[in-house]
Write a structure and sequence with these properties.
By secondary structure, this protein is mainly beta. 0% of the residues lie in helices and 48% in strands. The protein is built from no helices and 10 strands.
């Protein structure tokens, strides 16, 4: 259900979702004014991660620790806004969560 380039995690594993925004004119990391993260579950429901769950680690660099609620393909996308020449979005990025063979409930 996933290709070889997709990260695979076990259920009940914290997943670190990370991004670096760039000033595309200068090709250097840059901070947007606002940073948003959207996650789509395997059923197609999209949730915006609260800004308090997003951590800045350096210029243009952000992450959020995310706990998937079940198995299947998950997709996330970062969006930055408010500054001209800053890369506005990340690619849609997929990861796959496998159910545990030992823990079934």
């Amino acid at each position: 259900p996933c290709d070889g380039d997709v990260d695979v995690f076990q259920v009940d594993t914290l997943v670190k979702l990370a991004v670096t925004f760039y000033n595309v004119d200068l090709n250097v990391p840059a901070d947007p004014v606002t940073v948003s993260l959207f996650v789509q579950d395997p059923s197609g429901n999209v949730t915006q991660i609260p800004s308090g769950s997003i951590t800045r680690t350096g210029v243009g660099a952000y992450f959020s620790d995310f706990m998937p609620t079940g198995p299947g393909p998950w997709t996330y996308k970062w969006r930055g806004s408010g500054v001209t020449s800053v890369q506005a979005t990340s690619p849609d990025t997929q990861f796959f969560v496998k159910a545990s063979e030992l823990i079934t409930s």
